[in-house]
Amino acid sequence: MRKAGSGGLVYSTDSGRMCPACRQPVAACTCGQQPMPAARPGAKVRVSRETQGRGGKAVTLVRGLSLEADALAALGKRLRTLCGSGGTVKDGVIELQGDHTERITDLLKQEGWPALRAGG
Questions:
Q1: Do residues 104 and 62 touch, judged by C-beta distance below 8 A?
Q2: Which residues fall within 8 angstroms of residue 67, CB to CB, at 6 or more apart?
Q3: Same domain (yes/no): 81, 42
Q4: Residues 113, 100 share a domain
Q5: Are 30 and 89 in a shared domain?
Q6: Scanning 11, 31, 46, 64, which has its CA 20 to 30 A from the CA of 40?
């Protein structure tokens, strides 16, 4: 049985693919263009790569973001989308599947976060 809130128009012959979040054509969608939150003074953001305890798989970790849980989850979602990978937010740390340290560091610096690469 289909839930009432999920689903909706996926494709229209008039405008093509539709964004599931804002229900606008993908070409006119502004959902993915939301700016990242600004950095707080004195924040030290560390981006590192880790493989321990993960079966040899690389995971990119973003630590030191002084954001509330909702803002951190939104930032994690945006980073996962930009990297094209999966991931999660646990205990104030954003985890992204794969080695995306350089891409994440550059992106956070462009957005005004004082991001540094941690580890070797």
A1: yes
A2: 37, 75
A3: yes
A4: yes
A5: no
A6: 31
- Identify the residue whose tokens are 């580890």: 119
| 90 and 56 both lie in a single domain | yes
User: Cα separation of 38 and 112, whole Å?
Assistant: 7
Same domain, 47 and 105: yes
pLDDT by residue for the chain (120 residues), tens digit each? 555 555 565 555 666 666 766 767 777 777 765 555 555 556 688 898 888 877 888 899 998 887 788 888 888 888 888 888 888 888 888 999 888 888 888 888 887 888 878 876
Query: Which residues span the domain enclosing 113?
Result: 37-117
CA distances from 46 to 66, 87, 99 (A): 12, 17, 14
Domain of 67: which CATH number?
Answer: 3.30.780.10
